[in-house]
Design goal:
Layout: H1 2-20, H2 26-30, H3 61-64, E1 104-112, H4 120-128, E2 133-138, H5 147-161, E3 165-170, H6 179-192, E4 195-198, E5 205-207, H7 212-241, H8 254-265, H9 270-276, H10 291-311
Parallel strand pairs: 1-2, 1-3, 3-4
Antiparallel strand pairs: 4-5
Helix pairs in contact: 6-7, 9-10
């Protein structure tokens, strides 16, 4: 009887040692492989998932036993970092061996200002540098919210929290932003321990967002926008001085102004006046001008009339 108790205790001890043999960072070793279960098929870098599309509470046995020292483990739990029970989403794959240091993940971001601009050049450049997970969007840097950039930063935060080094890789620093926007983002990434890498441009290379050089160049980038704006305004003023019109073809003329003045004299609203006017030339020929156009036309007329009376 005593012998039987000893054997039972030994089996319990071996079982306990097997379960306790799973270290906190073993989940990274498990996620280094694709899950071979056809019902899961989670790619490397992502946790296992349930049949209902949720993050599983434990990794599938067929997957964690691909790790040699876990071959005899009974179970390997999915860490709280992966939020078991939440909606499953694919995470960044581990980089190919030999492209970056072990434990270093690179997350790509590409952006174009308008939908007419292609993202192909940026995406090709990122893939050529070894980046496999790319977030891309077509949106202006002036937009208050950039969803794909937010997703890239959120993923980078999660990867960094798992203990791996992470860098956000961008084709050029202007794809992230300019001036204050870029400086604010750099400060956000610095606080989160996330690195930045630019593949081309003035900031080409890897940079610590808290570095002096990065901050100075970000400020110069902001000055570039102001310089372009000033040059554009100077060009407009020069063109106006030569009698050239700026922008699209005008939709108002003297005949329209005469009718608008007569209707205003009848105390009609701008909306009603606009509804009775018709554009005579240009691409908008046959359409009604907007109330804002009518208001601007009448205001310019009043300003010219007032200026002429003062001179007289």
């Amino acid at each position: 009887m005593f012998h039987g108790l000893v054997q039972t205790d030994r089996r319990a001890k071996r079982t306990h040692e097997t379960i306790c043999g799973v270290s906190d960072d073993d989940f990274l070793r498990v996620e280094a492989n694709d899950c071979p279960m056809s019902s899961c098929a989670a790619p490397a870098g992502s946790p296992c998932r349930t049949s209902r599309g949720r993050v599983a509470a434990q990794y599938h046995t067929a997957r964690f036993r691909l790790v040699p020292h876990l071959a005899k483990a009974l179970s390997v739990p999915v860490p709280p970092l992966r939020k078991p029970g939440s909606a499953w989403a694919e995470l960044a794959r581990p980089p190919a061996a030999g492209t970056v240091p072990a434990g270093h993940v690179r997350v790509g971001y590409a952006r174009a200002s308008t939908v007419r601009q292609s993202l192909d050049t940026q995406a090709d450049s990122l893939r050529a540098s070894g980046v496999t997970r790319i977030f891309a969007e077509q949106i202006s840097t002036r937009a208050l919210a950039r969803p794909e950039l937010d997703k890239a930063v959120a993923l980078a935060r999660e990867i960094h929290a798992s203990g791996a080094a992470v860098t956000i890789v961008v084709h050029e620093h202007k794809r992230l932003g300019r001036g204050i926007e870029l400086a604010a983002l750099a400060e956000q990434l610095r606080a989160a321990g996330i690195g930045l890498e630019f593949l081309t441009g003035e900031l080409q290379g890897s940079h610590d967002p808290s570095g002096v050089v990065f901050t100075v160049l970000a400020a110069l980038s902001g000055m570039e926008r102001e310089y372009i704006r000033d040059r554009t305004l100077e060009g407009h003023e020069s063109a106006r001085a030569r009698g050239k019109s700026i922008g699209g073809a005008p939709v108002t003329d003297e005949a329209m102004l005469a009718v608008a003045l007569r209707l205003r004299g009848q105390e009609m609203s701008l909306r009603d006046i606009a509804a009775r006017l018709v554009i005579a030339t240009g691409k908008k020929k046959g359409q009604h001008p907007s109330p804002a156009t009518v208001m601007r036309m009448l205001r310019e007329h009043d300003e010219k009339t007032a200026a002429a009376s003062v001179v007289a």
